[in-house]
Amino acid sequence: MFEEIIVMVGFAVFSIVMSFILLKYAPNPLHAIFRCIAVVGIIIHELSHALMCVVTNTRVRRIKLLERTDGKSKFGLKYGGRVELEDYMKLTFLQALLIGLAPLYISFWLFFFLWEQIKNPNLDVLIFFVYIVVMMSLVLSAAPSFADLLAIFGAFQFDWRYSLYQTVLTILSISTVWYVVNYYQIQFFHEIVAYLIVFFGYYGFYFGFKGLKNMYYKIFGKKNQKRIKYMKPKALTRRRVKLTTPERETQW
User: Fold this and answer.
1) How confident is the model at residue 222 (pLDDT cuts 50, 70, 90)?
2) Are residues 61 and 35 in the same domain?
3) Domain end among 124, 156, 188
4) What is the reported pTM?
5) What is the 8-class DSSP label of residue 240?
């Protein structure tokens, strides 16, 4: 369980290396071909951000799947994409992490889903080549951009204690699910089920600690209570965070 996280990290490194080589150093006409192929990945990249915004209850102001980069791309791409948030200054660390890394894990699962499909000997030849092109495009655009990483870092450093609290809850949830699954030898039909359980486990700890805190104050009274501000979690909801730059995505 969770072994695919290691593979996902390797996939991210592979994406960075291959996009750097193929989009910057590949000779023409290969360079032009790879630039065209990357367009599909750019669209998937931005849709992944948008989908995770919906999951994390983050309002999106504008989505541009493709727009001209005016020659600003390091790799010579003429098109990029971006997702603008209405409240990009109210992201929690967990929100920024999920939204920023969404293209990586969505592209990861989609890549290996297509990988299983092309191994089918009865697959139509045209569909086979379409899948190959999409897989190549995913590799060229799966890795998080500098803007994605900057947003994650900005959300963490604004209120590092609150961010650490979210991190602790996440680690507790993952550790608990991992222990229960391995102890009882539970098998899932797909790994995504384990992550859904982690999600619910996170909220289990969230409400559990909140209930214990309320019980403590109810038993011992409020005259001596000292509220810890960062221990008041609002997981996956917006919280004011000053980022140095808006959530703006221009893939490569």
Assistant:
1) low
2) yes
3) 156
4) 0.80
5) -
